[in-house]
Amino acid sequence: MPLDETRVRDFDFADVPVKVREKDAMLYALGLGIGADPLDARALRHVYEKDLQVFPTMPLVLGSPGMWFDKAGLDYRKLVHGAQALEVVRPLPLDDGMVARSRVVGLWDRGAEKGAVVDVERVLTDTAGAVVARLVSTYALRGDGGFGGRPPERDGWARPERAADGAAVLPILPQAALLYRLNGDMNPLHADPERAKAVGFERPILHGLCTFAMAARGLIEQISPDAPEALRAISGRFSRPVFPGETLRVTFWQQAGEVLFEAAVEERNLVVLTGGRARFA
User: Fold this and answer.
1) Same CATH fold, 166-280 and 5-20+62-141?
2) pLDDT per residue over 162-206, tens digit each?
3) Residue 167 half-sphere exposure, CB side, CA atoms within 13 Å?
4) Active-site annotation holds for 185
5) Least enclosed by CB within 10 Å: which of 60, 98, 133, 180?
6) Is position 207 annotated as part of the catalytic site?
7) Other CB atoms closer than 10 Å to residue 45's CB: what's the count?
8) What would the pLDDT profile of 230-270 be if each residue is shown by its tens digit?
9) Of the candidates 167, 12, 154, 30, which has an alpha carbon nearest to the alpha carbon of residue 83?
10) Does domain 166-280 have CATH number 3.10.129.10?
């Protein structure tokens, strides 16, 4: 049955209160593999309480509205997280209250056979109402197409036909998914070998948002290692799953005021994150 466009567009999300404590910030960074070298001062600023600095992609795990899809009449069993965008307006405050507010900002129809696409915006604000971060999560709804809506627009991203300006190589911890899930996404697909096999994976997979944040980490280490807060925006499309214990290579090109990038796993020579764009101050 085609989705109810009005029901989806007008879905009423509850506000989610958010507060980041020191341990939350350190656990998030550890899940990204930060701190592997305990003598690296640039890493310690994210995993040690002295002069602690929240890693800039942490808004990705804050204030999620949870599994709202079935409440809006969507087939969550055929849902895939297709893309992610993050704008960092200012650094996340520690121990200060914030509020996350979500809303549907886009709904696209790819046809009955290909499904639909929904864009969900989440805005984090402080107690004074000032914006801290904006996120847009894009989901492919493979069972909900054919409702008569407009098709999604193409973003025009293309891999530059020249040598890359640089690359970061990041080993993914074998236990990365077990650490990262403690940020809130407790889906057993990322922890339970039997559950992973039941849906066609040889072993538990890494969270897509962990891959996304590790790509941001690689860009920061290459482009702005002394000022991680210079990252202002980052976006990309998920193309393949990643397994803990693999090695992520983030390749980038700097041009026209932005950074284009993609990420691949070296062991399988497979691109797992594409269409990447980032902006630094």
Assistant:
1) yes
2) 999 999 999 999 999 999 999 999 899 999 999 999 999 999 999
3) 14
4) yes
5) 98
6) no
7) 17
8) 999 999 999 999 999 999 999 999 998 999 999 999 999 99
9) 154
10) yes
Q: Give the Cα-Cα-Cα angle 33, 241, 276 (nearest 5 degrees).
A: 75
CA distance 246 to 33: 12
Instruction: Determine contact, residues 94/52, Cβ cutoff 8 Å.
Output: yes
Domain map (residue ranges) of the chain: 5-20+62-141, 166-280
5-20+62-141 has which fold?
Thiol Ester Dehydrase; Chain A (3.10.129)
Which two tokens mark 178? 């077990």
Question: In this prediction, what percent of the chain has a pLDDT beyond 90?
Answer: 93
Q: Which of 190, 192, 207, 226 is catalytic?
A: 190
3-state secondary structure of 190: helix
Going through 97-246 in order, the beta strands assigned E by DSSP cover 98-109, 116-126, 131-141, 166-171, 231-238
The active-site residue out of 95, 185, 192, 207 is: 185
DSSP-derived secondary structure letter, 157: -
pLDDT of the residue at 261: 98
CB 69 within 8 A of CB 143: no
User: How far is the C-alpha of 263 from the C-alpha of 275, rounded, in Å?
Assistant: 10
Can you list the positions of beta strands (E) in 149-269? Answer: 166-171, 231-238, 247-255, 258-265
Q: What percent of the chain has pLDDT over 70?
A: 100
Q: What is the pTM of this model?
A: 0.96
pLDDT at 42: 95
Helix (H, G, I), strand (E, B) or coil at 6: helix
DSSP 3-state of 122: strand
Closest to 60 in 3D by CA, of 9, 132, 12, 157: 132
